[in-house]
Amino acid sequence: MTRQIHRRDFLAASAAAGAGLLAAGRLQAAPFKTTLKKALIGAPQEATLKSWKQAGFDGIESGLWKITEADAAAARKVADKLGMTIHAVMYGWANFNDDSKRAGDVADVETALKACAGYGADAVLVVPCRVGGMPMPQPWEFDIEFDDKTGHVKRVVAGDNAPYQKYIEAQNHATDISRKAIQQLIPVAEKTKVVIALENVWNNLWVKPAFFTHFIASFQSPWVQCYFDIGNHVKYAMPEEWIRSLGKLIVKCHVKDFKLNPDGHGGKFADIRDGSIDWPLVRAELDKIGYSGWMTIEGSGGLSLDERNKRLDLIVAGK
Questions:
Q1: Is the dihedral of CA 135, 138, 143, 148 positive or negative?
Q2: How confident is the model at residue 31, as a pLDDT?
Q3: Residue of 97, 193, 255, 270 with fewest CB within 10 Å of its CB?
Q4: Residue 86: beta bridge partners?
Q5: pLDDT under 70 in the chain at which residues?
């Protein structure tokens, strides 16, 4: 006998089935739209790559940049053989605001971009410069106003900014001179097909989400993007605020945690998942901006490889 099922009967039956699965604890949440891959930072040598692969990682961010493209290509072959990916290169600190070091550091970043291409990687982490040695606001005191055209700071705190005038001048100089240095590097980035991924690492510059976003976006180039360190920015604003602001500018993420003091002012770095970061929220915000890419642990070296992998798995799963 053939039985016709009306739409209302089908919907009712489906709802009942769903409720039964939920009650049984078997109804899974919808998966994330984005895919995250796991990495650590180090030298892409065979023994290291093997052990990291066995621990469950997918790739590596190379800390070796001062090598030839040929040597980098040889390392890539080793990684490929093991099923690992060299996904980025950490250049690190540059001194673009130091007249005596700028030309040398621009040349060094060129070397890093070429090495990155040899590795088959697609981004070089660069911290443009840093300032210090003058009075500056505490992280929780910042209330930055900047010019939308020039990126120059008008104020860094509410009220009297006279105590911070030297800092404001240093910030504006760093913005201008870093922009010039990076613009010199864009043709090399384009030729090598490697992104210059800018990062903040407690360099006292671009310390608020909208301000850092404006600086990176001002290049209007697909070859200048953001390397977002999830833990480095906590003392200024929580990671979800940075992610919402930076959005599609984020091309890589470092995974690090930070434990705020009880009053929310200052704190210290912690092993991942032991700090103040709301990791499920971070995962959800990365999904909202469509970030599919690498999650590279920086720090937490006191934990075993297996423990770091386990904790990163939980973060990737949104837990």
A1: positive
A2: 85
A3: 193
A4: 60
A5: 1-30
* Whole-number Å distance between alpha carbons of 227 and 198: 5
Map residue 198 onto helix, strand or coil: strand
pLDDT of residue 30: 52
Q: Which residues have C-beta within 8 Å of that of residue 213, sequence separation ≥ 6?
A: 245, 246, 247, 249
pLDDT value of position 164: 98
Q: Is 47 exposed, middle or buried (CB count within 10 Å of its CB: 0-12, 13-18, 19+)?
A: exposed
Residues in CB range of 175: below 8 A, 6 or more apart: 150, 151, 152, 205, 206, 215
Q: How far is Cα 186 from Cα 184, in angstroms, rounded to an integer?
A: 6
| Structural domain contains residue 12 | no
The position carrying tokens 């704190």 is: 267
The torsion defined by the Cα of 243, 170, 197 and 250, in degrees rounded to 10, comes to: 10
Residue 129 and residue 199 in contact, taking contact as beta carbons nearer than 8 Å: no
**Does a structural domain hold residue 6?**
no
What dihedral do alpha carbons 288, 294, 300, 306 form, nearest 10°? 110
Residue 151, Cβ neighbours under 10 Å: how many? 18
- Kindly report, residue by residue over 257-282, the tens digit of the pLDDT: 999 999 999 999 999 999 999 999 99
* H/E stretch holding 20: helix 7-23
In a domain, 278, yes or no: yes
pLDDT of residue 10: 33
Q: Count of domains in the chain?
A: 1
CATH number at residue 240: 3.20.20.150
CB neighbour list of residue 24: distance below 8 Å, 6 or more residues apart: none
> Strand 145-146 vs strand 153-155: parallel, antiparallel, or unpaired?
antiparallel
Q: Is 247 helix (H, G, I), strand (E, B) or coil?
A: helix
Structural domain of 307 = 39-316
- H or E element that contains 111: helix 102-119
The answer as to whether 33 is a domain residue is no
